[in-house]
């Protein structure tokens, strides 16, 4: 199954990945692609957290969204997809919103790595704080809405982010609690576009959030096998 991957990293590192657990919070355009890339990279256990069901507005950009999955919980759709890819992968799902009332159940797992793909800033901050308190390597994906250019996405330190309103708030909230150089994120160097209509939801497409998810999985994969990742 992982023969082509084994040719790249060797059987010893593949065996290491098969013993590791990745927590992925949020299964939208970013999280769905991150989850699939992690599953296809040989990780043995994946924890999925998302309270949403698939809606028609998701179809233009989310891996879990198809006409046949409308109305289904995203965690269930993603679990089935992962099991179809790798039946040996242990998938644990939490069809719930990550917040102060649910977080203890989620953190009551042995977690090796974390990919944060949620939009709610309060709980993005909480995930970062918990990960650093517990010494768990993680990456947090900043805003991908209202953007056209996936090539502008970069793995960087939170202290280096620009043009990203989510990152700006998180920097402000965490600057007296953590060394922002230790907080690793995916962020775009692209100035956000202005949507053509006023809306409470950002405009989005099939390539910027999806690319962010792949980059996040790539970062976790590389640090899991002991590779050095160059950061901005």
From TrEMBL:
GO molecular function: tRNA threonylcarbamoyladenosine dehydratase; ubiquitin-like modifier activating enzyme activity
One GO process term, biological-process aspect: cyclic threonylcarbamoyladenosine biosynthetic process
Pfam families registered for this protein in UniProt: ThiF
Residues annotated as domain THIF-type NAD/FAD binding fold: 8-147
Matching InterPro entries: ThiF/MoeB/HesA (IPR045886), ThiF_NAD_FAD-bd (IPR000594), Ubiquitin-activating_enz (IPR035985)
Classification via SUPFAM superfamilies: Activating enzymes of the ubiquitin-like proteins
PANTHER family: TRNA THREONYLCARBAMOYLADENOSINE DEHYDRATASE (PTHR43267:SF1)
Name the record gives this protein: tRNA threonylcarbamoyladenosine dehydratase
Organism for this UniProt entry: Candidatus Xianfuyuplasma coldseepsis
